[in-house]
Automatic annotation (TrEMBL):
The gene is pyrB. It is an enzyme of class 2 (transferase). Pathway: Pyrimidine metabolism; UMP biosynthesis via de novo pathway; (S)-dihydroorotate from bicarbonate: step 2/3. It comes from Lysinimonas soli. Its EC number is 2.1.3.2. This is Aspartate carbamoyltransferase.
Length: 325
């Protein structure tokens, strides 16, 4: 696997292979010295043109657990503020000797442009491009669902028959898009819920069902409820009347939490706006796997970095990664 730009580039076998390899990588964290020598001598550059906490730190941790060197670039305080282009920034970093670029950018398609342009000779991993996709978030969400459902018996399994409801700002969410395509590839059914103004045009052509009534959707007893952040920074118009109105109609509040089935998983990619899209009781409940999503992100990103830098297929295991004990 040369790059990871979109989950739509993965078929079911490849996606399950990445999830299975992440199972191996998760075992590394339990060791006295949680490291593999796999990427020793390799350099990973994190190029983040947008703010990030979870994704950036997760990729840093993943690279370091694989013994890679890490260069982290943030647009704030860099030459980007002086007008430097993505091409020039990438080539400047590449001239320092790098093997992989983890790119987050505000422009949809930026990761594919970088991978296809020939500007640099390095693997490219999409860490979120505009409102397009966030493939490693989709993978870690699928991994979290599978692990929560099946525990130690998760290896090799898909998500056939699972019902997932994704709620909120679908229009601006790259997380929603990656989850829609990956979850349906793995056999799950997806239902989207949000204000009509925050459902994308053309959503009827997606492999999903959609609606605007959250209570009706929850009455169908989904297996997973994934709440999305309201992305105010991407909104240049009034998409709903008021935050209180949004919370009343589309927030996972305490009353809706009480009506969920006991085994319903509650997910959120973070950062959370508590009291808006999700209550503290829901975010901190025993049904919430929000922190599991964060910890599982390191394992998924270890798997992805290993695959793009080793040239191996997703069927590779930890022994081939240099971690057999």
């Amino acid at each position: 696997m040369r790059h990871l730009l979109s989950v739509r580039d993965l078929d079911r076998t490849a996606a399950i292979g990445i999830l299975d390899l992440a199972e191996d990588m998760a075992e590394v964290a339990t060791r006295a010295v949680p490291k593999l020598p796999t990427l020793r001598g390799r350099t990973v550059a994190n190029l983040f043109f947008e703010d990030s906490t979870r994704t950036r730190l997760s990729f840093e941790a993943a690279a370091k657990r694989l013994s890679a060197d890490v260069i982290t670039f943030s647009a704030k305080g860099s030459s980007v503020s002086k007008g430097e282009s993505l091409k020039d920034t990438a080539q400047t970093i590449a001239a320092m000797g790098i093997d992989a670029v983890v790119l987050r950018h505000s422009a949809s398609g930026a990761a594919r442009v970088l991978a296809d342009s020939g500007w640099i000779d390095a693997a490219v991993v999409n860490a979120g491009d505009g409102t397009h996709e966030h493939p490693t978030q989709g993978l870690l969400d699928a991994y979290t669902i599978r692990k929560t459902l099946h525990g130690s018996a998760a290896r090799g399994r898909d998500l056939d028959g699972l019902r997932v409801t994704i709620v909120g700002d679908i229009l601006h969410s790259r997380v929603a898009r990656s989850n829609v395509w990956l979850l349906q590839t793995l056999g799950a059914s997806v239902h989207l819920v949000g204000p009509e103004t925050l459902l994308p045009l053309g959503v009827g052509a997606w492999p999903v069902t959609s609606g605007t009534d959250l209570d009706a959707a929850l009455a169908e007893k989904p297996d997973v409820v994934m709440m999305l952040r309201v992305q105010s920074e991407r909104m240049h118009a009034a998409y709903f009347p008021h935050e209180r109105e949004y919370a009343r109609q589309w927030g996972l509040d305490d009353a809706r939490l009480a009506r969920l089935a006991p085994d319903t998983m509650i997910m959120h990619p973070g950062p959370m706006n508590r009291g808006l899209e999700i209550s503290s009781a829901a975010a901190d409940s025993a049904r919430s796997v929000v922190l599991d999503q964060v910890s599982n992100g390191v394992s998924i990103r270890m798997a992805v970095l290993y695959l793009v830098l080793s040239g191996s297929g997703p069927e590779a295991g930890i022994a081939s990664a240099g971690g057999a004990s």
